[in-house]
Amino acid sequence: MNPILLAILAVTAIGVICAVFLAVASKIMAVPENELAKQIRACLPGANCGACGYAGCDGYAKALAEEKGIQTNLCVPGADAVSRQLSDLLGVEFQDVVEQVAMVKCRGDCNKSRRRMDYRGVPSCAAARLLYSGHSACSYGCLGLGDCALVCPEHAICIENGIAHVDTRKCIGCGMCAKACPSNLITLIADVERAFVMCNSHSNGALVHKNCDVGCIGCRMCVRECPADAISIVDNLATIDYEKCVDCGHCADVCKRGCIAFGDFSGAHRA
Q1: Cα dist. 226→16, 195, 229, 264 in Å?
Q2: How many CB atoms lie within 10 A of CB 105?
Q3: Which end of the chain has fewer CB atoms at under 10 Å, N or C?
Q4: CB under 8 Å to 135, separation ≥6 — which residues?
């Protein structure tokens, strides 16, 4: 017999035998799938962001199907619609979801903050931060290289004038941008809140004043003027207690540095 034909037949025979073996093994060794978990998984949005505290949607679905007392309102991207579906499927009481949006704690763009160097390395915030905490004179500020924008599943973040901006109308509150930011200056807040401190610096007032035109210098004006006593200075930075805040917006009016934003930050679900 032709040696080439013999080799072809041998390889084909081995392939057929292996295919039959794998088919039989898949049936014998198959792990039974939890049908309830499968139904729950179909309700989840599939963002796999981990906002629920589990390893993606599959992990959350498995926990809901197999464990008692797991809350059905942990999927922030899915919001109330998903929570209601899960409640109906599991036969439990509906639990409201606190919708959230991502906010960038920095307003120091190219025109308002100084740079300590001209960075020409890898275009990544994580990489730039390894070099003397980044090219911004403020070591707490936005580096503007877009690590957050790259991971956003809804394309809700853009880089303008050297700084990240979140379009809250598109934001689903998954928190992936906050995890990607090496400077920890992206945070999630309930989208019903109306006031937000747009600064992340814990440096003393003199240094902030030198490095940035819109950074918080801890002057305490907002603290003195707040009618609800909802603002305090923590480690040189104004901090809002949302449990006390009455959304009057007076803090934004009296802040001479313009580092407190006041407005409607409604997210994708509410908008």
Answers
A1: 77, 12, 5, 19
A2: 22
A3: N
A4: 115, 116, 117, 118, 119, 128, 143
Q: Indicate the range of 6-15, 55-64, 155-164, 202-211 predicted with least confidence.
A: 6-15
The number of angstroms, rounded, from the C-alpha of 208 to the middle of its chain's C-alpha atoms is 27
The Cα 38–Cα 266 span in angstroms is: 32
Place of tokens 């059905």: 72
pTM across the whole model:
0.82
Residue 136 and residue 110: Cα distance in Å, rounded?
9
Q: Looking at the predicted structure, is the pLDDT value of residue 270 above 90?
A: no
* 115 contacts: CB under 8 Å, gap ≥ 6: 135, 136, 137
Find tokens 């014998």 and name the residue: 28
Contact in structure between 192 and 246 (CB atoms under 8 Å): no
* Range with the poorest average pLDDT among 64-68, 219-223, 225-229, 230-234: 64-68
190 pLDDT tier (thresholds 50, 70, 90): very high
The C-alpha atoms of residue 99 and residue 185 are separated, in whole angstroms, by 20
Question: What are 189's strand-pairing partners?
Answer: 101
CA gap 173, 186 in Å, rounded: 11
Q: Residue 246 contacts by C-beta under 8 Å, 6 or more apart in sequence? A: 227, 228, 230
Other C-beta atoms closer than 10 Å to the C-beta of 108 total 28
For the segment 42-100, what is each residue's pLDDT rounded down to a tens digit? 999 988 898 898 989 999 999 999 988 899 999 999 999 999 999 999 999 999 999 99
